[in-house]
Amino acid sequence: MILVSGGGTNLQAFIDAVREGRIDLEIAAVLSDNPTAHGLERARRAGVPAVCVPRADYADRASFDRALGDAIAARQPDIVILAGFMRVLGPELVARFAGRMLNIHPSLLPAYRGLDTHRRALEAGERWHGCTVHFVTEELDGGPCIAQARVPVHPDDTPERLAARVLEQEHRLYPWVAALLASGRLRYADGTAWLDDRPLTAPCTQTSNDRANLDLNLSPDP
Ligand code: GRF
To answer: What is the C-alpha separation between 58 and 66, in angstroms, rounded?
Structure first.
C-alpha cells in the first residue's frame, strides 16, 4: 500500500519497478489525503486501486488518523509505504503499523529533518546531500535509518536542481528497500532496523555513481 499527497514520482518508480519485474511486490492500493493528488491518477492509469481519505472531511487529526488507519487495514497490506505523504501521523496510527511502515526523506538523516531540506543543505554549504529511507516511528523523520543515497552538491546548484538529482536517487533506492522489507530480510525490532538478522549500526549506502551495483551497495556499512 502506498500513501501519497502530491505528484507521486516515487509512486511511479514503484509502479515501473513492479511492472518491469525488478522488485517482487504487489501494490495493493494507493491512498491519498488529497483528492487532487496526481499520484491517484498515476495509480488509476496503472490499474491500481486509488483510494482517497480527504483530510478536509475530518474535524481533527485523531478522527482522520482512525479513518486512514481503517482504510489501510481494509486492504490488509504487508507493508505501508509513505511516498510524499505530507501528513504527520499520530502515535496510535504509527503503532498500528509499527515495523511495517517506511518513509523516504530528502536528506541524509539525522541532518535536516522537516521541510525545505535542499535549500537548508545548500545554505549550510554541505558538500553532500541525499535521501534516507527509514522506519516510521512517533518521532517525525526520526525512526531508525535503513538506507541512504548520497549525491554531491555542485557549486552552481539551486534547491530545484539539487532536489531533482536527489529525487532520481530516491526512485532507485526506495522500491529496493521496500522489497527487502516485504521479503522479510529487513525487519524492525527493539527500536532498530535489522538486515539479514544483523542490526544496522549505520544506514546502508548507495552512491549515485555506482548504479550498476545497487544490490551490492545495499549491504550494511562495515
Ligand atoms: C520526495 O522528495 C520525498 O523525499 C518526500 O516527498 C517528496 C515526494 O515526491 N518525502 P513525489 O510525490 O514522490 O514526487
So the answer is: 10
